[in-house]
């Protein structure tokens, strides 16, 4: 039976809304509400003040960034993280929290260090931010799986990538069904993670938010090296496909 408070939260959510509730041992809590608009982008939420200086496009701008300051004065990824970063600026990485994630159709609960909770939330926000290099992961955000393991992530990301190639094929575009393109995507994301970390370090008083990005970056480095081995381990699950003539 779903607890009443959880059920009430779910009833208030739109189909594409996701809420993260962080509950601290001292009774304190933080709530981050993500509202997705048509096209699976974050609904714009205007600050009641000017954007902080650390979100300017040319402040620790990624060397592989294709955007121009003329058309994009602010880094879209940094803008998407303003509320999260400024709300977690004093949080320490290893403080434990209870994490509740509420969606329209289901809820998740787990205990984790704050850095892992924030990393899970960032993994949802960043693909939806409008950054060209993280946009390929938008389907992963649409079908968000909080607190995913490396094995789960490899299964999901390779499935996502190959489905994307199939859709390119159906659309009459060139499609490559090996994973070289996925590795190239991760190379770009690794650069993005490094430079968004520099932005956050410029204002963070504690290390939780910086370490959250570092955890994401570890995935971006470890996954490409682990894909082949993990897929080989998963091969027995696909025996029904492999046995077909």
Gyration radius, rounded: 19 Å
Mean pLDDT: 85
**Which runs of at least 5 residues are low in confidence (pLDDT < 50)?**
none
Structural class of the secondary structure composition? Answer: alpha+beta
Largest sheet: 5 strands, antiparallel
Summed up, the helix count is 8
Principal-axis shape equals globular
What does this protein look like?
By secondary structure, the protein is of the alpha+beta class. The chain has one domain (4-242). 46% of the residues lie in helices and 13% in strands. It is built from eight helices and five strands; from the N terminus they run H-E-E-E-H-E-E-H-H-H-H-H-H. Strands 3-2-1-4-5 form a five-stranded antiparallel beta sheet, with helices on both faces. The chain is globular.
Write the layout of secondary structure elements.
Layout: H1 4-12, E1 17-23, E2 29-37, E3 41-42, H2 76-87, E4 96-102, E5 107-113, H3 114-125, H4 138-142, H5 150-170, H6 180-201, H7 208-234, H8 239-242
Antiparallel strand pairs: 1-2, 1-4, 2-3, 4-5
Helix pairs in contact: 3-7, 5-7, 6-7
Question: What descriptive keywords fit this protein?
Answer:
single chain; 245 residues; alpha+beta; five-stranded antiparallel beta sheet; 8 helices; 5 strands; 13% strand
Describe the structure concisely for a colleague:
This protein is an alpha+beta fold and 245 residues long.
């Amino acid at each position: 039976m779903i607890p009443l408070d959880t059920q009430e939260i779910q009833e208030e959510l739109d189909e594409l809304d996701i809420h993260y509730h962080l509950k601290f041992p001292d009774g304190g809590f933080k709530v981050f509400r993500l509202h997705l608009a048509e096209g699976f982008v974050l609904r714009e939420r205007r600050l009641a003040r000017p954007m902080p200086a650390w979100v300017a496009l040319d402040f620790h701008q990624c060397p592989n960034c294709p955007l121009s300051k003329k058309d994009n004065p602010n880094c879209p990824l940094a803008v998407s993280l303003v509320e999260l970063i400024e709300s977690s600026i004093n949080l320490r990485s290893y403080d434990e929290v209870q994490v509740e994630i509420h969606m329209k159709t289901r809820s998740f609960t787990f205990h984790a260090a704050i850095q892992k909770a924030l990393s899970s939330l960032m993994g949802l926000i960043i693909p939806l931010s409008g950054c060209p290099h993280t946009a390929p992961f938008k389907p992963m955000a649409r079908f968000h799986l909080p607190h995913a393991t490396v094995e789960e992530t490899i299964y999901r990301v390779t499935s996502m990538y190959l489905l994307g190639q199939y859709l390119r094929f159906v659309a009459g575009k060139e499609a490559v069904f090996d994973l070289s393109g996925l590795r190239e995507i991760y190379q770009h994301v690794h650069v993005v993670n490094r430079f968004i970390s520099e932005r956050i370090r410029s204002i963070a008083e504690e290390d939780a938010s910086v370490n959250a990005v570092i955890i994401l970056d570890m995935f971006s480095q470890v996954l490409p090296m682990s894909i082949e081995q993990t897929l080989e381990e998963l091969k027995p699950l696909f025996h029904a496909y492999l046995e077909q003539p």
